[in-house]
């Protein structure tokens, strides 16, 4: 049995084909961390725009708790990539 249908999230930035890697290492030799576009948008709103969670959630058209989960997930993935020298790729989430 599947869960609820995923709500479409409003994303105001284009994160297509965005990736980062540690300096001096070839990408083909690196493990990758996938950050989905909705997680990236949550990071942009929370950390770059410095918006409160409720305001950010409203902009994305989602609940505050869902926004909180997106930010937490993205931050863990970013920390993993930085600490463990992994490449980061932003991609669209399949429904």
Feature tags:
95 residues, 3 strands, 3-stranded mixed sheet, alpha+beta, Arc Repressor Mutant, subunit A, 3 helices, 42% helix
Looking at the overall shape, the CATH architecture of one domain is Orthogonal Bundle
Distance between the termini: 16 Å
Shape summary: globular
The overall pLDDT, averaged over residues, is 89
In DSSP terms (H or I, runs of 4 or more residues), the helix count works out at: 3
- Strand and helix order: EEHHHE
How helical, in percent, are the residues? 40-55%
What class would the helix/strand composition place it in? Answer: alpha+beta
How would a crystallographer describe the biggest sheet?
A: 3 strands, mixed
Count of strand segments: 3
Approximately how much beta-strand content do the residues carry? 5-15%
CATH level 1 name of one domain? Mainly Alpha
Low-confidence stretches: none
Q: Radius of gyration from the CA trace?
A: 14 Å
CATH third-tier fold name of one domain: Arc Repressor Mutant, subunit A
The largest sheet has its strands arranged as 1-3-2
